[in-house]
């Protein structure tokens, strides 16, 4: 009898530990949705928006760091993702220019703080353009409290310049500096289109700051999908040089799985970038 009681107690403890772990697990995505260009033929926004938002709901993403979102697209996503709210402003200020908005499940997270800064020599100046960048670029961040687990963490989301090599390197340095200033020792999630392949100086700068890439820290069986994320509406011949969308982490975060979702149906694509989706566990503060 005593043995049965001991077994039952052990099972109860195991079940309780698993339940607590499950409360700390979340799904995070980085998704360049492609701005609503009228020149995208069969892949125009009107043909993709239902598919794209359905994929977010199906994968039960808790947090989505988006890039290239225009205000019109933001309004569409608000309608099609009714269980989500978002933080962020346009890169030209207020509702002007592309957003790097962070979408989050309203019922799960409380926003304790949030802000946006510019990737430039004057990060607090709205619409400021830095170094050799072609366009103003931003970082939107939020401090979330997970209502399931009680754990608080930061989520940063960005889109580096597509032309300026020096801008990408300098942006990485500024971003790592800002993360340290803002977060202290709290858990950090960083999503974005960095317009940088894995072996570039910009990515090396991020990794040298203590940020980690789950693609490099998980076993092969924990990673699924193509080795590239940017498809440019034609995935033929793409290699790891086109893996330019990332989810980084630091502090009390344990990656569990990583997927690059190959959203392609014949000649139709979910976006000109495939979303990156990670499951992570938030460790207790």
From TrEMBL:
Asked if the keyword Nucleotidyltransferase belongs to this entry, the reply reads no
Native species: Leeuwenhoekiella blandensis (strain CECT 7118 / CCUG 51940 / KCTC 22103 / MED217) (Flavobacterium sp. (strain MED217))
Pfam families reported in the protein's UniProt record: Exo_endo_phos
Q: Which residue numbers delimit the Endonuclease/exonuclease/phosphatase domain?
A: 31-273
Is the keyword Signal in the record? yes
Could you state a single Gene Ontology molecular function term? 3'-5'-RNA exonuclease activity
Q: Which UniProt keywords apply?
A: Signal
Q: Where is the signal peptide?
A: 1-19
What is this protein's record name? Endonuclease/exonuclease/phosphatase domain-containing protein
Q: Which InterPro entries match?
A: CCR4/nocturin_mRNA_transcr, Endo/exonu/phosph_ase_sf, Endo/exonuclease/phosphatase
């Amino acid at each position: 009898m005593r043995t049965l009681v001991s077994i039952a107690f052990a099972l109860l403890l195991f079940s309780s530990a698993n339940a607590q772990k499950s409360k700390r697990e979340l799904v995070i995505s980085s998704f360049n949705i492609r701005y609503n260009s009228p020149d995208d033929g069969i892949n125009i926004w009107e043909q993709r928006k239902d598919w794209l938002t359905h994929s977010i709901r199906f994968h039960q993403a808790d947090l989505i760091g988006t890039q290239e979102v225009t205000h019109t697209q933001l309004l569409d996503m608000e309608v099609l993702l009714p269980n989500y709210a978002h933080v962020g402003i346009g890169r030209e200020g207020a509702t002007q220019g592309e957003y790097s908005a962070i979408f989050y499940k309203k019922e799960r997270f409380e926003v304790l703080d949030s802000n946006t800064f510019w990737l430039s020599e004057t990060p607090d100046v709205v619409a400021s353009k830095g170094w050799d960048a072609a366009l103003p670029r931003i970082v939107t961040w939020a401090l979330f409290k997970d209502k399931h687990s009680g754990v608080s963490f930061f989520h940063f989301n960005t889109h580096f310049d597509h032309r300026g090599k020096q801008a990408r390197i300098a942006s990485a340095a500024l971003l790592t500096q800002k993360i340290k200033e803002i977060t202290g020792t709290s858990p950090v999630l960083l999503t974005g289109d960095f317009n940088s392949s894995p072996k570039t100086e910009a990515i090396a700068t991020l990794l040298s700051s203590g940020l980690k890439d789950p693609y490099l820290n998980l076993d092969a069986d924990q990673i699924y999908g193509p080795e590239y994320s940017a498809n440019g509406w034609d995935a033929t011949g793409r290699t790891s040089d086109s893996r330019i969308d990332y989810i980084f982490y630091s502090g009390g975060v344990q990656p569990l799985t990583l997927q690059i979702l190959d959203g392609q149906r014949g000649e139709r694509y979910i976006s000109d970038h495939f979303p990156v989706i990670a499951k992570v566990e938030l460790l207790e503060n």
